[in-house]
Design brief:
Chain lengths: 109, 109, 109, 109
């Protein structure tokens, strides 16, 4: 059954979307917001495609693999930017993005 | 921190959205789709507002309580319809909707 | 037919969601991002509920009125914040939010 | 400015998402739902990626081209299925999907 087959990837995308939403909101509360703007931008892209990937996989969509392939790329870009910042929300988000990218690549393989 | 304070409700909404997406897709594969159309319709409404509630709470949005109050109502309507059907995906979805409604009401209280 | 009956409100919500997404991204490019953070936060809430309202109305959902009632409130809060800023994207977003709030209130009446 | 540069594609994706949401809901009200299930499934995939594409382009996201390339493929699959059905909502949806695919390909070029 598609839903169960995809569960590890659904869980990784779910965690990543939440980490990105939280990171974007926390970046907006940082003292020096100016240097967090790329992080916020990439967080928004990443959260959006992770949420859509969860919706596709939960339906067992035939397009899940294609979407997760792109999701992995966007997660990797977000992870790279988040990893540059010392804030805990950025470091946690970078890890969630890396885990999600890996889960998406495995799912799409 | 809003994100953590909301975590139980985020988790319930996440599970409910996935259950609704899966239930809608599974209803479309039922032998007698005709009698599942109300269930599919309500699943789509419920999944959408649960996903938005997760996004709001993950950001620690000031509107989370208002949105979760409405989310609880929509979950209850979906639970009622799903509970009428014997299929496992409907019964599981009904339970996820009831759990989510309760978590949303507690969060909004 | 619900889709056509709701078309004016669908159009207003569509314009508002785009204006909010654009305003949030433009705020991130402002010289003084620090003073735009409330605007960005409210833009994200507003865009999300406008998009969900469009999805509900496009399906002719029975929950459209309830969702649009809440959408109107969130649009009004966003309009108030955006109106405080002189940037063109903020002024345009404030107007789109006011128009959307009005369309949502008329639809829900 | 990205938002304006993308406007034709934003508009095509917006119309396509609405047509798909409406088509899915109308398919559920057809006398013979059983033969519309592929159409409903593809409508849901297509609406979701069109909505995300609008969000990306409205923010002027650097990932807009990649997402629109995939969006075009999913639109073409949905157009092909919708075109098989005589119902007006399917024929209109097929046209909206073809227009959107073309706009996405031009944008991504």
């Amino acid at each position: 059954m598609p839903h169960e087959q995809y569960q590890a990837c659904i869980d990784a995308c779910t965690r990543c979307a939440q980490a990105c939403r939280h990171c974007a909101a926390s970046c907006l509360q940082e003292h020096d917001v100016q240097k967090m703007t790329d992080c916020i931008r990439l967080d928004l892209d990443c959260a959006g495609i992770c949420e859509l990937s969860v919706a596709y996989m939960s339906r067992g969509s035939e397009h899940s693999r294609q979407l997760c392939t792109l999701c992995a790329q966007i997660c990797e870009g977000c992870a790279e930017e988040c990893a540059r910042h010392q804030a805990q929300h950025c470091q946690q988000c970078a890890q969630a993005c890396r885990d999600c990218a890996q889960a998406c690549r495995q799912m799409a393989a």
